[in-house]
Write a structure and sequence with these properties.
Two copies of one chain form a homodimer.
Chain A (H helix, E strand, L loop, with lengths): L27 E9 L5 H14 L10 H7 L10 E8 L14 E7 L12 E3 L4 E12 L8 E9 L8 H15 L4 E7 L3 H9 L3 E3 L2 E7 L5
Parallel strand pairs in A: 6-7
Antiparallel strand pairs in A: 1-2, 1-3, 2-5, 4-5, 5-6
Pfam families (chains A, B): Acetyltransf_1 (PF00583)
GO molecular function (chains A, B): N-acetyltransferase activity
InterPro entries (chains A, B): Acyl_CoA_acyltransferase, Diverse_Substrate_AcTransf, GNAT_dom
Chain lengths: 225, 225
């Protein structure tokens, strides 16, 4: 056989680690949803509230137990009183049953680096389907008198450490804002610690207005007259 | 008759206005009570909310109408959602029927100068018995997560101008705090404008703790994503 009849040797696939100009980008989807929490979610919610207390340097104020959360939450229809949206994530597409009170909000994000969740086992909400709890938002109606219509007050917004800076905080807060619009409510309001510059930046990017001129006052326990 | 038998001439009563060292002090009682407001009180509540907007320099935010207040308030049992305590005053003793949900709190204060209420006619809640609305407090349950039990958030505390500095603000705020204790709630919370030094002084005298490190964030109307 003539050498000319030979097919050209195949071009070797480039080693991703060797091509410094165009590294191969991975496409790792994360399937996420925001759904109404129920009493079954209390153990995960309790752990996240504790992590939030650590982050806010307020563990001296932390006295919540699973039992006290169970007693005081989920006693009223959603949105009429204290309400929790839960953020769940999975590497697999989610099968969501339509909930009457609140159809879950879903979103797929695409990562180019693998996400390592060191507490994945602890926060499984559905191990068989590889679904993990990644954050929550707790809110309830408030009443801005000048508007004379209810709004929502967001007491807590929390995304677990390894899931931050991926748009999930915005997804949770937007879910509350959308629910407010749906109910004809006038305002969504919350507070932020003045040293939490990342949170302030995040809120300002969401076009929230920061009001510098108000101060919080509290009567607690023994100081209640 | 001998002159000696005559009784001594009576000592003339001193003219109060002439005795500069010991002026005669009047004792003008004001009978007051804190009671649950009802839908019938909306016209008075609406007027006071407007006066409050003027005082807080926030009339640009004021859009409440009697109709919007009526639609959004008094839709739930007291204390489970938005709740209003009304302050009423009268120069006459009050006859109070015992209310099931909240037995009114009464108090008599004693003034040594007559109190002139230029808007008495406008704020009569019971003209036949000379009872006038003098203030209100609007509050609703909130949920301090770290405590994992509800508290009350005081949205508004207002005493009409001529009734200020007589203890009525404290009477209203204490009524909320006492209700919180009665319900096993953990905290009473509200906000104050940082330039409102009189209010801050008043709250500090009530042993409230002022938290300087929080900032209020709001999404309103068009800025809701």
């Amino acid at each position: 056989m003539a050498a000319a009849a030979l097919p050209p040797p195949p071009t070797p696939a480039p080693e991703p680690s060797m091509n410094l100009l165009e590294p191969t980008r991975l496409d790792l989807p994360i399937f996420s949803r925001v759904r109404l929490a129920t009493a079954d979610d209390v153990p995960h919610i309790h752990k996240m509230i504790h992590q939030m207390a650590v982050f806010k340097k307020l563990t001296h104020l932390f006295s919540a137990t699973e039992s006290s959360l169970t007693t005081t939450l989920f006693n009223s229809p959603p949105f009429t009183s204290f309400t929790i949206f839960l953020l769940e994530v999975s590497p697999n597409p989610l099968t969501t049953a339509t909930a009457a009170a609140f159809p879950p909000i879903e979103r797929v994000i695409h990562l180019d680096l693998p996400l390592v969740d060191p507490e994945r086992e602890t926060f499984f909400s559905d191990k068989a389907n590889d679904i993990t709890v990644a954050g929550f938002v707790l809110f309830f109606p408030n009443y801005p008198t000048f508007l004379a219509k209810p709004g929502f007050y967001v007491e807590d917004l929390f995304v677990r450490d390894c899931y931050r800076r991926k748009g999930f905080g915005k997804m949770l807060l937007s879910a509350v804002a959308k629910q407010a619009v749906k109910m004809g409510y006038g305002r969504v309001e919350w507070v932020v610690l003045d040293w939490n510059v990342n949170a302030i930046k995040f809120y300002e990017e969401m076009v929230a207005k920061i009001h510098d001129e108000w101060r919080i006052c509290r009567l607690t326990g023994r100081t209640i007259p």
